[in-house]
Every structure is written in C-alpha cells, then in structure tokens.
Amino acid sequence: MARRVAVVGGGVAGLAAAHRLRRELGAEAEVVLVEQACRLGGKLRTVELAGRPFDLGAEAFLARRPEVLDLAEELGVRSEVVHPAGAAATVRAGGRTQRLPGGTVMGVPAEAGSVAGVLSDAGIAAVRAEAEMPPIELGADISVGDLLRARVGDEVVDRLVEPLLGGVYAGDANRLGLRATVPALAKALDDGAGWITTAARAALPTPKPGAPQPVFGAFRNGYRELLDRLLVAADVEVRLGLPVRALVRTGEGWRLEIGSAPAPEHLDVDAVVLAVPAPAARKLLQGPVPAAAAKLAEVELASMVVVGLALPPGTQLPEHDGTPASGALIARGERHSGGTPFTAKAFTFSSNKWPHLRGSGGEVLLRGSVGRFGETEDLRLDDEELLRRVRADLAELTGITAEPVESAVLRWGGGLPQYGVGHLDLVADVEREVAGVPGLAIAGAALHGVGVPACVATGEAAATSITRDLVQPER
Ligand SMILES: Cc1cc2nc3c(=O)[nH]c(=O)nc-3n(C[C@H](O)[C@H](O)[C@H](O)COP(=O)(O)OP(=O)(O)OC[C@H]3O[C@@H](n4cnc5c(N)ncnc54)[C@H](O)[C@@H]3O)c2cc1C
C-alpha cells in the first residue's frame, strides 16, 4: 500500500531523511517535505560572492566520518568534493597569533611541551603539575571547563580548548559537557587513563600507514551542490514557507497543522520525521510526547553572524612561518593593541584554505564569524557596524586594510545547539520516548553531533526507523 510520510524541516537532516525514505519506501510512497523558510538547506547556505558560490553557513565537513562522502558518492557528486590545502591553522591568544599546536585533542595537549608556543610558562607549569594529582574518576558527566581548569589550569581552556570548541559549538567551555563534546577524552578517562595528558595521548588518532587522509572536505561549488542533488534524488513534494504549528496523533497516523495561525491547512500522513531545531521539536512534541518535549526544552542555542568578504585580487592573506594560514581562532577576551576588544571569534582565510576559492575576477575570499553562547550584544549591531568591526579585527590581526570588493552579512539566530552537561543522557531519554510512538522519528543537530555528517546520520537513521514502522506496524 502506498504510504505518505511528512518530513518537517528542510535542513540537511530533513533532506537526508527524505532521500533515504524515497530509497527505502520506493517510488510509490508520497514524501512531503514541509519547511517554514522560503528556501531549503537550513544552516547550509551558498551565496554568490564576487561571482563565486561561497558558503556562509557550514563551509566544510569532517571527512573522517563517512556519511557525507557516502552520500556524495550515492548522488554522483563525489568528484565535486575538495579538500583543504595544507594551510596552517592559527590562534590569537595571550595577545599573540600562534600556529595551533598539533598533538592535541580539541586543544587538550598530550604533553605540556607541545603547547609551549601558546601557553605562558605558568600555563605550561600548570599542565605539568597535574602529574602530582590523584587520578581522575570521571563520574556521570562534567563541564569541559570545570574538569580542565581544575586539572591543567585556565590557560589550556581559555587559549586552546574554548577557541576550538567555539569553532564547532560557538559555546562556553564552562557549560559544554565533556562526554558529548570531547567524547574521545571522556572515553580514555573512563578506560582508566587517570590524567588529562595521558587521556589525550590515548585519544589521539593513531596515524594510518600511507598518505595522510584529509580531515575536512567541502563541495567545490558549495553545499548547494549537495542540496540540489539530494532534492532531485529524494523526489519529494516540497512545501516552502509553511511552518508546521502542531502535530496530532490521529488513530494510526498523524495530522500536521501547517501554515499561518489564522488560516492553517492540515496534512494527514502515516508517519512523520521531525528534523527541526530543538525549540521547534519541543513545541511539536508537547502534545504527542510531552516527556521528550520537556527534555528538549533544556537544549540551549547559540546565535552567530558570518561575514563574507571578497578582497581585491592580489590581497595577501596571512602566512605563518612561510605556510599560508587557513584561518585564525580568537580567544575570548583578546584585545587590539589599542585596547578595543575583538568582535570576531574566528576568521577563515578561505582562499588560503581552499585553493579553488577565488572570486570570478581573482578576488580573495574570507569569512569572519561573530557570536558565542551568552554573548549577544555584538549580534544586535546592524550589518554595517558588524562589517566595520570585523574589518577592524582583520586589520589588527593581519594588517589587511583593503576595501572589500563585495561583502555579505548573514545572521544565524539560534544557529547551534549547546551540548550541556548530561547531553548524552538527555538525548537517550528523548529518543527512548520518541521510539515508543510508532510512525514518529526525530533527526537533526540537537542529537548526536552538530556537524553535517552527524546530521545526515540522524536523518538517515530516522528514515530507517520510519520505514520499519510502516513495513512492520506491529513492532
Ligand atoms: C554559521 C554556522 C557554521 C557552521 N559550520 C559548520 C561546518 O563548517 N561544518 C559542519 O559540519 N557543520 C557546521 N555547522 C553546523 C551545521 O551546519 C548544522 O548543525 C546543520 O546544518 C544542521 O542541520 P539540521 O538539518 O539538523 O538543522 P537546520 O539546518 O537548522 O534545519 C532545520 C530546518 O527546519 C526548519 N524549521 C524549523 N521549525 C520549523 C517548523 N515548525 N516547521 C517547518 N520547518 C521548520 C528550519 O527553517 C530549517 O530549515 C555550522 C553551523 C552554523 C550555524
């Protein structure tokens, strides 16, 4: 019998779910994707900058995970995946810009000496002093900041771990939970590593024989390439500009209330995948799965702004010790030499990092990011002022003062969920509750990782769970 499934949310998780539903349920099934915005992609957004497709949401993916690469292969766009040039990542901390040291797990050093360039002598002494402490008994979960500050000192957190975590979660190390955000370190401690540096050593990936595999990938013409292919292959009915307002169980199926509050439409389906951010999922689950909704209410979000700049051809992006710099993370509290605080928390020197990324006239492209969890003041500035401040930060950091040929400012309100202490348990509770309701599945960045591969994985898993429910309804 033909089935009708609704996917709510047209970000990468929803599109991956829709695509997998089509593959698993076949051509007969009706898959309807309902998206509140007037475009698909969610946090993936490719714009034109200096005549070139340029990502102003997510710009890359972790290529050590298989999901995006496998999907690209399946969709016939694997040849469009590119990898960064061997440019050097840097961090501005303690008033200086240094190369980001290797041999760390999310900034946690495997030995004190490896972070000597970034930490002060006192900071290095604090890392070494941990050896005199009793071994760690991790327990349920703890914030990254609380654990590391107590064991290896503030500088490791402030100058390395938080800038790196900030790049992924825009988060505050004192609130992010260790088990969800640095799981390899937590596992090594669970396995009895005892000390932070010992755990970091155990958690470092073992080098594989042969040429090193690239850590990151991206699409030559931006994420748009992946989204377009996903949409065609999913062969779904897309309903744009229609928020789903309510989700109601109706006998064996579901009724979705969609569109404007005064004149809602109804969509009746056999099953639903919810691939929306935590606040929207909380609202929609309140009726059918209140316990899951209550848990999702605990997930907080960070907002941010991405500023894209196209600089005149020939503009020299920074180098570090003769190697082009791929970007710079900026530690919280860093200031210009004149005392002005930095507004940006990071820059990606895109044309250094990705050799193919130049404007159509050879313009040099880069991105500045603004916004950390709990720091919302800068986000209230208008676009012009944000642009001015990001350019001032760039000038301070790199000496580049060239007038941009073109610029773009994109705001991401509630862009990234924060994985707090106990996040893994929270997600396990949500998923257990949802799994108890046939014909319902959830996906997206609130669950098992904010990165694009993790979101694809949750979308595909949700589709598989729905297929199982529809094919074996007695389950
Ligand atoms: C600025 C930024 C940079 C990032 N950089 C990277 C990176 O380089 N690499 C990486 O791997 N990850 C990165 N990420 C993270 C990653 O992009 C996201 O976590 C991921 O794309 C989220 O996908 P999603 O489908 O779960 O959610 P979303 O993309 O948020 O999609 C959810 C969709 O649901 C829709 N929606 C919400 N409520 C409703 C409703 N009631 N009815 C209908 N539709 C609704 C929304 O409009 C949205 O389109 C970045 C994120 C941001 C914000």
TrEMBL record:
It is found in: Cytoplasm. Its cofactor is FAD. Gene3D superfamilies: FAD/NAD(P)-binding domain (3.50.50.60), protoporphyrinogen ix oxidase, domain 3 (1.10.3110.10), Protoporphyrinogen oxidase, mitochondrial, domain 2 (3.90.660.20). Belongs to the protoporphyrinogen/coproporphyrinogen oxidase family. Coproporphyrinogen III oxidase subfamily. It catalyses: coproporphyrinogen III + 3 O2 = coproporphyrin III + 3 H2O2. Residues 12-466 form the Amine oxidase domain. Pathway: Porphyrin-containing compound metabolism; protoheme biosynthesis. It comes from the Bacteria. Its EC number is 1.3.3.15. This is Coproporphyrinogen III oxidase. One of its GO terms (molecular function) is oxygen-dependent protoporphyrinogen oxidase activity. It holds the Pfam family Amino_oxidase. Keywords: Cytoplasm, FAD, Flavoprotein, Heme biosynthesis, Oxidoreductase. It comes from Saccharopolyspora aridisoli. One of its GO terms (biological process) is heme biosynthetic process. GO terms for cellular component: cytoplasm.
